[in-house]
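User: Sequence in, structure out. Go.
Assistant: Echoing your sequence, followed by the structure tokens.
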Amino acid sequence: METQTFLTRVADRQWHALDDDRVVGRGYAERRPDGRLFVSVDAWHETTFDRLAAAMLAELPAPVYTVTDEADTDLTAAWLRAGFTVRRREWEYAVPTHPRLTGLEQTPPAGVRILPAGQADEHLLRAVDRAIRDEIEAGAGWQSMPAEVIPRHAGDTIVDPSKYAVAATPDGYLGLIRVVVGNRPRIGLLAVRAGARRRGIGRALLAHALGTLHRAGFTEAWTEVQESNAAASALFASVGALPVGSNLELMR
């Protein structure tokens, strides 16, 4: 006898699809620190996915977001069927660390010195981060930056001050780079004040970060670059970074 699949909301932001009391699909919703609501569905069958997605979207407030690996065409197609559209694409790059491969020199421009991670004055670090964010938002918009970079409480955007190296002058900080070291080091943010660009400060920060990783025994790092950020794409391409994948952020 053919069984029937039932959907049930088992928690505030969690749904199950049940077939004869067996879980055949799960749906989740998560509100990220930036306030946006992201959803995911794990189901073996297309019809179960579609039913779970429809049930979730009927109960969740709009807008709703999700992220897919662009290579997973079936998953992307499933969210498109649910009414989502592609909001942004991020390319993932593998970045070599050896100076022979990157061609980077660790000599910063005249009058600028690079303070290693953990040595920045926290007040000045937060000030330059805020100034850079305001400049980017007034120009290309913060959507051109990695999706992971999110605001914290009371406008605080520094996740962990010990992860940031900065480009310093006697008058203040001109740029910053954040690297999270794990099994695979990740460059989460590289940015320079608008008035200090095209002076080699971004390259100097990148050279410092990659050189530090190289001396620690890492052969490569990884980073994501928004597709529309041509300057960042050009910078990483110039140091031998190779695209290894892409992610899509979809919105409904």
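User: And one key feature?
Assistant: Confidence is low (pLDDT under 50) at residues 147-154.
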